[in-house]
Amino acid sequence: MERHPKVIETVVNNDLCIGCGLCVYKCPEKALEMQWNEEGFLVPQLNGNCEEDGACLSVCPFNPFPEEEVKTENELADKFLTETSQQHHRIGRYIGIYAGHAEEYRQTSSSGGLATYVFAELLDRGIVDHIFSVRESTDLGRHYQYTIIDSRKTLLESSKTKYFPVTLSTVFSKIHELDGKVAIVGVACFIKAIRLAQHTEPELKDKIPFLVGIICGGIKSRFFTEYLAHKAGAPVESYQRPEFRIKDTNSYALDYSFGCNVPDSEEQKRIKMRSVGDMWGTGLFKANPCDFCEDVATELADISLGDAWIPPYSADGKGTNVVVTRSHLAEDILQKGIAQGKLSLESISLERFMASQQGSFNHRQTGLPVRIKKAKKENKPVPPKRFAHEKVSLDFRYVQQIRMKVRKVSLQIWKEVRNSEDFDRKIAPYLLSLKRATKIYHYKRALDKRILKWMKRPWRPER
Question: How are beta strands 42-46 and 96-102 bridged, if at all?
Fold first, then answer.
């Protein structure tokens, strides 16, 4: 009888796999490989004999049954981020919070260029010898993949955000073969997987001295890119070189474009992302495990970087980062960059940072109990969560329920049609329901704020 790795039985079969690929690295039998599933995500599949060692499960960021000492991000932060001076239950441990950009790399980056600047500093200072980052791939159908970067020149080629499934399995298996140390960039779940690997193999903490976290709105299926390519006028089966964040530096930050090439042509097909509607708040083409991620600010990274979606930064089409430092090295890199005139950064308050990612905090943390309740009702395992007992209003609960439906249905519809016009027509009723529910929620929230403000006004007796 064929034996299945625990990560497949417990995580993949319960639609909790995010595709980080650390299980492939950790499997002692080398019985796993990452393959596309039917919903356009990379997941581990069996490719050899398995003795059910369980090591694969120990590094999974969505393991429903983790060890007590690494139960949540809190325990991992206590273990790995001991240099922090402050802590907040919604963003984790931190030293400093900033907004700004790196002028040298701003134009060639999706946002403010801070990730490229930090990596360049790590290489120049000799702190690391290699960087695991995402670059264009020559593998058929992959478009992008994690690769090993050793120089500033190749670093620039990996500077933009790619909303396409990638896996660390392409590089992590080589980590012990590399001379020197490694820095890695990743979204929250990938960073958590790396910390879990460092927990199981303490020598990896020295091998990987620095992690750059990218604040993420959710992992998208490759269907997302196919949809955008078709909307832009490229063939779904053969589009090439997708580019997700083409800036308009004369406009505002959210006014960016998607672009891709067609075979045998240098012409790039483009479409403004604002013309396709909200692809993030709706949950379209999103991975199911993202609905069980409560880490908005990549809490386990040495430095966390995101987009400054707040005024006045949101009005600048050149791009601006929000930044959270969580180690002395990260703080030192920024402070020296400011002193040398290489970085334009200003400290911002915790409240301003949270406002820049408010939608994500609302969805990932406040709305989490709704999704947990649904999973448990269906007898599906759920990883331990810190925000499992948040109070959720009736109107916001309804928004969450529709978002879950939109996420699931969007993947089903695209599998059937693979055509943007038919997809738009079939998904429209679900998006309309979500729009109405969200409008009611926002109206109710605004009304509650007005009532609260009225109740707090000074009382004055009638004359």
Answer: unpaired
Taking the C-alpha atoms of residue 261 and residue 147, their distance in angstroms, rounded to an integer, is: 22
Domain for residue 330, yes or no? Answer: yes
Report pTM: 0.95
The encoded tokens of residue 99 equal 């907004």
- For residue 319, what are the contacts with CB-CB under 8 A and spacing of at least 6? 101, 106, 109, 110, 111, 112, 113, 247, 253, 307
- Tell me whether residue 193 is in a domain: yes
Instruction: Give the DSSP H or E segment for 307.
Output: strand 303-307
pLDDT at position 50, please?
80
Would you give the end-to-end CA distance of the chain in angstroms?
88
Question: Under 8 Å CB-to-CB from 200, ≥6 apart: which residues?
Answer: 26, 55, 58, 59
C-alpha to C-alpha distance for 200 and 155, rounded to whole angstroms: 30
C-beta separation of 112 from 124 below 8 A: no
> How does DSSP assign 75-124, residue by residue?
HHHHHH-TT--EEETTTEEESEEEEEEEHHHHTTSSSSSHHHHHHHHHHH
**Residues making up the chain, counted from first to last:** 463
pLDDT at 463: 54
Tokens 């273990």 belong to: 79
Give the residue carrying structure tokens 């980056």.
Answer: 109
Residue 414 lies in a domain: no
In the 8-state DSSP scheme, what is residue 289? G
CA dist list (Å): 280 to 163, 218, 344:
11, 8, 29
Q: Is residue 443 part of a domain?
A: no
**313-345 residue pLDDT tens:** 999 999 999 999 999 999 999 999 999 999 999
Rounded Cα distance between 146 and 166, Å, is: 7
Q: What is the pLDDT of residues 133-145, one digit of tens each?
A: 999 887 878 899 9
Q: Give residue 350's domain range.
A: 6-220+286-360
How many independent structural domains does the chain possess?
1
Distance CA 124, CA 342 (A): 14
Q: How far apart are the C-alpha atoms of 48 and 97, rounded to whole Å? A: 47
